[in-house]
Automatic annotation (TrEMBL), chain A:
Keywords in alphabetical order: ATP-binding, Cell membrane, Membrane, Nucleotide-binding, Transport
Cell compartment(s), UniProt: Cell inner membrane
Xref: NCBIfam families: oligo_HPY
Membrane topology: Peripheral membrane protein
ABC transporter domain sequence ranges: 21-271
One of the protein's GO biological processes: peptide transport
Presence of the UniProt keyword Kinase in the record: no
Organism: Consotaella salsifontis
Name of the featured protein: Peptide/nickel transport system ATP-binding protein
A cellular component term, taken from the record's GO annotations: plasma membrane
From TrEMBL, chain B:
The protein's name: Peptide/nickel transport system permease protein
Gene3D superfamilies linked: MetI-like
One Pfam family from the record: BPD_transp_1
Lineage: Bacteria, Pseudomonadati, Pseudomonadota, Alphaproteobacteria, Hyphomicrobiales
Subcellular location: Cell membrane
CDD domains in the record: TM_PBP2
Membrane-spanning residues: 12-31, 100-121, 133-156, 188-207, 242-269, 289-311
The keyword Transport appears for this protein: yes
Length: 338, 324
């Protein structure tokens, strides 16, 4: 079953079966003085329990906005203007603020990009972890504390009992991210949205954190949306990958298929620009041009102006073409042997 | 006691010492108290007797040395006017000033922080903008004028509150307090509000600025992502962060509340230290002036020390750096 589908009634209905999260035609716009920025413009995908979805794209492609839209933490002037987000049968776009609050941290947890910024500098770790439990359950403080300690131990923080009493500045960046992950796991959520959680970390730490999250979510059958600009990170851990460009998914499918046989020229470009894929001594390949201005997108295919395959046909909006659960949004897909 | 604290304590003592020199020299150049204290019809012999008795015939450095010597024994000189130890006279008036300054401080916190929080959380609302406009007024209107207007409105026109004095007082631990009786409280309201007005404005602006700075931080978003209630986010995550600058300023301002109670005390005939110093300056009561200023400086430096100490309690990062 594919992760990404066009919003056609029959396909949508069948895909929702077994999905814990189902996003349909999500539109999140930002009203700016210069005009309406369509950060996310018609996004649809499904996620099953325990599934890891990699959401990949350049900065400004709308991947983070997608994550924050799901938990309804888009800050003004951003606003969800259309679409449906169905989480375990509950419709989130129309949910009340209190319903959303109960969901956040309990059923849908988040991990943020910069671990230096996500923990409150003036509160002790135990305070910040215990409150995450007590926001959702009436638990005695000693029991909440024990759970926090166990969670810290699980993410590989040595002597967790003592570290609970520490303040965030007494931790390194990698350790802080472990604390954030432990916090996200406290209530055993069904879904974790990880917004570039390894981007701000050293490469060696990145690998450790990746392995840690992979192991912990597999053990508890937690679904993950892993947002990243780094295709190589995603390819190592995701089951499915969705590539975003200018607020839309341009290609999606099982990770091996997308990486080995990309259809969309943009995906092919991203893969081609990975240093490991290039031969020694060769110039690194790159996608020419710049991320498009979301206020001034080209008509039709948004990638048209940067694409080698583009022609007159691309002035029209490409639909979503699907084959064996691998979908792409392009009139001139790359051939599989390319 | 940590090493940094001892260092700070030593610095504070140095400041008090340096300040006594400045005060002593400053006071001695503003006029000769003998001109005011000696009756105009006294003869040369009588005049000389008084000058010698007050120690004014000695060179300034000798006067200073004997002052320091006495000060180290807790004697800040004897008032020319009252004929009593200056320290005793000031200490008698101190509770009244403290009562006034504390009331003003409490008003500043009670009004300033909630109004500032509101204005910071809804920066574009009509009420928020009114609060901010009001705070500008509180900053810029002179205290004495506001005090007079308050008396005009509440005491003269409406007749709701008394215009001056401490009202009925109660003795607790040998000190008279106004706030414990209904009548005393009625007397306290206007001067306390008058003195607090500037501080309320200050706390409003500080709180609002703090809220505006903290709200967009990632850790607030993370707190929301944890599913915390808005109440908990504001009362713990936001407030604890903005409390650092607020505590500093409130602490430092407490010193100035006591020092600048002068104006309010004079207008509302509040029998505190501020009124005393004005009277002492008018009569060139040198030991009183010096003693008052020394006490104020000790206040300021002590408050500074306490604020430094509170910092380390509030901001864990300060604790680590200063501990090293």
């Amino acid at each position: 079953m594919t992760a990404v589908l066009e919003q056609t009634a029959g396909v949508a209905a069948s895909s929702r079966r077994g999905a814990i999260l189902s996003v349909r035609d999500l539109k999140t716009y930002f009203a700016t003085p210069a005009g309406e920025v369509k950060a996310v413009d018609g996004l649809s995908f499904d996620l099953r329990a325990g599934q890891v979805l990699g959401l990949v794209g350049e900065s400004g492609s709308g991947k983070s906005v997608t994550g924050f839209s799901i938990v309804r933490l888009i800050e003004p002037p951003g606003r969800i203007v259309g679409g449906e987000i169905s989480f375990k049968g509950q419709e989130l776009t129309g949910a009340s603020l209190e319903e959303m609050r109960r969901l956040r941290g309990r059923h849908i947890a988040m991990i943020f990009q910069d671990p230096m910024m996500t923990l409150n500098p003036v509160l002790r770790i135990d305070t910040q972890m215990i409150e995450a439990i007590q926001a959702h359950e009436r638990v005695p403080i000693a029991e909440a504390r024990a759970r926090a300690r166990d969670a810290l131990g699980k993410v590989g923080i040595p002597s967790p009992e003592e570290r609970l009493k520490a303040y965030p500045h007494q931790f390194s960046g990698g350790m802080r991210q472990r604390v954030a992950i432990a916090t996200a796991l406290l209530n055993q959520p069904d879904l974790i949205i990880a917004d570039e959680p390894t981007t701000a970390l050293d490469v060696t730490i990145q690998a450790q954190i990746l392995a840690e999250v992979q192991k912990l979510t597999r053990d508890t059958n937690t679904a993950v949306i892993w947002i990243s600009h780094d295709l190589s990170v995603v390819s190592g851990m995701a089951d499915e990958v969705a590539v975003m460009y200018a607020g839309r998914i341009v290609e999606a499918g099982p990770v091996a298929e997308v990486i080995n046989a990309p259809r969309h020229p943009y995906t092919a470009g991203l893969i081609g620009s990975l240093p490991s894929r290039n031969r020694r001594g060769e110039r690194l390949r790159q996608i020419h041009g710049m991320t498009p201005n979301l206020l001034d997108l080209p008509e039709g295919c948004a990638f048209r102006t940067r694409c080698d395959h583009a022609d007159e046909a691309c002035r029209r909006e490409p639909g979503l073409f699907a084959r064996h659960g691998h979908v792409h949004r392009c009139f001139h897909p790359c051939r599989e042997d390319a | 006691m940590p090493f940094w604290f001892i260092k700070r304590l030593f610095g504070a003592l140095l400041i008090v010492f340096a300040m006594t020199i400045i005060v002593f020299v400053g006071v001695s150049v503003i006029g000769n108290p003998a001109d005011i204290l000696v009756p105009p019809d006294a003869d040369q012999v009588e005049r000389l007797r008084i000058v010698t008795a007050l120690g004014l015939d000695q060179p300034l450095w000798k006067q200073y040395l004997s002052f320091i010597g006495n000060a180290l024994h807790g004697d800040l000189g004897t008032s020319f006017v009252f004929g009593e130890p200056a320290l005793k006279v000031i200490l008698q008036r101190m509770p009244a000033t403290f009562e006034l300054a504390f009331s003003a401080l409490i008003l500043a916190i009670l009004f300033g922080i909630p109004l500032g929080l509101y204005a910071g959380l809804r920066p574009h609302g009509l009420l928020s903008r009114s609060i901010m406009a009001g705070s500008i007024l509180g900053f810029s209107l002179p205290t004495f004028w506001v005090g007079l207007m308050m008396i005009m409105l509440f005491a003269v026109q409406l007749g709701w509150l008394p215009s001056g004095g401490r009202g009925e007082t109660v003795d607790v631990l040998g000190v008279r307090w106004s706030f414990l009786t209904a009548d005393g409280l009625r007397h306290l309201i206007l001067p306390a509000l008058n003195l607090a007005l500037f501080k309320i404005s200050l706390v409003i602006r500080l709180t609002r600025a703090g809220v505006r700075e903290v709200m967009p931080q990632e850790y607030i978003k993370f707190a929301r992502a944890k599913g915390l209630t808005e109440r908990r986010i504001i009362s713990v995550h936001v407030l604890k962060n903005i409390l650092i600058p607020i505590i500093t300023v409130i602490g430092l301002e407490f010193g100035s509340l006591i020092a600048f109670a002068v104006v309010t005390e004079t207008i509302f005939a509040w029998p505190g230290m501020g009124k005393l110093i004005i009277d002492s300056i008018n009569s060139l009561d040198r030991p009183m002036i010096v003693a008052y200023l020394v006490i104020i400086v000790i206040f300021f430096t002590t408050i500074n020390l306490i604020v430094d100490f509170l910092y380390t309690v509030l901001d864990p990062r300060v604790r680590l750096e200063s501990g090293g």
